[in-house]
Every structure is written in structure tokens, then in C-alpha cells.
Amino acid sequence: MPHRSISFDQLLVRSHDLWANQGMLLTSGDFLDGSYNCMTIAWGSLGNMWNRPFAQVVVRPNRFTYEYLEKYETFTLCAFPPEYRRSLQIIGSDSSRSQEKITAAGLTPIVSSVVAAPAYAEAELILECQKIYWDDLKPENFLDNSLENFYPNKDYHRIYYGEVIAIIGK
Fold it and tell me: Exposed, middle or buried by CB within 10 Å (0-12, 13-18, 19+), for 48?
């Protein structure tokens, strides 16, 4: 089935399942320049903020993809059919600073419809996002002290909000 454009108003996803069970591939950089990096993520959200559709992702500063999110204004979030679960595991376990992990995972980077960051031919859902806000998690703001257990190395996530400017899906 070919990809087609989907409006945010028509997007139907099981949001918690999408993040917690299916996982997403976060990619930032510039496809045409060949300068981009990706990582598998399982934490994030979709919604409405400042009257704009948004995707929110979190990335630790020690991740290589963090450098790309800091440098580039756009990112993509791609969800894949179940048969690509192993591909996401390969991406998630390889902290390589090269794009060889993408080849090893059997994924095909493609030009996105609007943003500079690439998407993937095998994806069943592609969210193209323009960064609009970031902030750092602050441990003093945790209302549940058990959240600190996720940060034994004190490497708190940076939060990025991206306006969803295009959705492509199968």
C-alpha cells in the first residue's frame, strides 16, 4: 500500500501502544546532505499545544541523536509494522555514530515530504515535525520521587516539542 497524506484531525492511533509497545524511530538531520542520525524511542506524546498539533519526544544529552536535534530544526517520527520490530531493536542497541546501523536494520531512508530529516520507506506512519520548544527535565520538579530511579547517572532528558506539519501513512 502506498503512502498518503493524512490530516492531524484524521489521525487515529492508539497513542500509548504506539510509544510503549510498538516504538518509534526518531531521526534528525538533513537527508540531502547525508547528515542525520536516528534512535529508537518509547517515550513521548502526541496532542495539541498552543493550538498546534504536536509530538513531544525526550532525548538524553549523551545520545548521538541529541547533537542532531540541537543542530537541526526538524525531525521525523516513524512507526513500523510488527515485522520491523527487530529493525528497531538493532537501531536501539547500536549507538553507532554512522549510518551503518540503518543498513544493518534493513531500513531505507527516503526524502520526507516537507522537512529536511529523512523518513523511511518501510514506515507505516511518518510524522514530520518542526521544533517549536525545548526544556530540560528538572529533578526538583518530580512530584513522584520514584521517577528519580530512571536517572541513576543524573542524565536527565531534554524535552522537544515539534509541531506536526505533515503526516504520511499507509
Answer: exposed
Residue 108: CATH number of its domain: 2.30.110.10
Rounded Cα distance, 126 and 121, in Å: 10
* Strand partners of residue 127: 77, 167
Residue 8 and residue 164 in contact, taking contact as beta carbons nearer than 8 Å:
yes
Question: What residues in the chain have per-residue pLDDT under 50?
Answer: none
Of 127, 134, 149, residue with least CA distance to 8: 127
Q: Cα–Cα distance between 32 and 71 in angstroms, integer?
A: 15
Confidence (pTM): 0.94
The domain containing residue 74 runs over which residues?
A: 4-169
